[in-house]
Amino acid sequence: MKKITIAIDGFSSTGKSTLAKQLAKQLSYVYVDTGAMYRAVTWFAMQHNFIDESHFDSKALIAHLQDIKLEFQFNSELGFAEMYLNNENVEMAIRTIEVSNFVSKVAEVSEVRSKLVEQQQQMGKNKAIVMDGRDIGTVVFPDAELKIFMTASADTRAKRRYEELKERGDVVEYELVLKNVVERDYIDTHRADSPLVIAADAIEIDNSNLTREEQFQTVLELVNKTV
Ligand code: C5P
């Protein structure tokens, strides 16, 4: 069977990563969560006080980009790769609502994007990869053999995110989660560099009313038609 590149893009909390992980496991492909990379850069900016509620010193972040080393390390107990920032496991730290609140601002910075896109392209140069994000089918791998674009209503997505945060013990009001989802959608679709758009050759899946298994089977069928 030929090895392909699978690009999964879409709005926040559409279940892209759950689907991508499941798919990568089934196909024995590498899975890359590019959102984790933008989150790790945001965490770095927060740790260095380059960003908070009242300011964002993007110039300082740009000046320190060469100090950021991002790596994924596979955790065999969990069955997926975790994000490391400068050799430190930041998998938990990057999933908080605080990071979610700032990440889209950081992701607007072109210098950040080009650094991460270059690393993503390197990771995918041998194909056999499932990568999820916002610009995978449009910018990172415009030639990907299979492009999926996931959507769901903002309410459905906020509910999913709220449940995830609750499961991790993060006490957050539902309204705040919804606000974050809506704001991130706005920034992600309106930024100048690589805005979130559906690639012309992407297949759109609205999963508001689909179970995880139904989504998985739908995409698996598409994969089988492509390879
Ligand atoms: O996928 P996740 O919700 O973790 O992504 C966090 C944020 O990172 C997104 O809201 C978006 O601003 C940014 N992002 C991006 N391009 C990607 C992946 C994520 O701009 N390829």
Explain the overall architecture.
This protein is an alpha/beta fold and 227 residues long. The protein is built from 9 helices and 8 strands. It has one domain: Rossmann fold (3-Layer(aba) Sandwich). Helices cover 47% and strands 17% of the residues. The relative contact order is 0.22. Cytidine-5'-monophosphate binds next to helix 2, helix 4 and helix 8. One of its GO terms (molecular function) is dCMP kinase activity. It catalyses: dCMP + ATP = dCDP + ADP; CMP + ATP = CDP + ADP.
Attribute tags:
227 residues; alpha/beta; Rossmann fold; five-stranded parallel beta sheet; three-stranded antiparallel beta sheet; 9 helices; 47% helix; binds cytidine-5'-monophosphate
| Largest sheet report | 5 strands, parallel
H and E order: EHEHHEEEHHEHEHHEH
The CATH superfamily appears as: P-loop containing nucleotide triphosphate hydrolases
Uncertain residue segments: none
Helical content band: 40-55%
Helix/strand class: alpha/beta
**How many DSSP-defined strands?**
8
Q: How far is the N terminus from the C terminus? A: 6 Å
Q: Catalogue the ligands.
A: cytidine-5'-monophosphate
What gyration radius follows from the Cα positions, in whole Å? 17 Å
CATH architecture designation: 3-Layer(aba) Sandwich
How confident overall, as mean pLDDT?
Answer: 96
Report the CATH C-level class: Alpha Beta
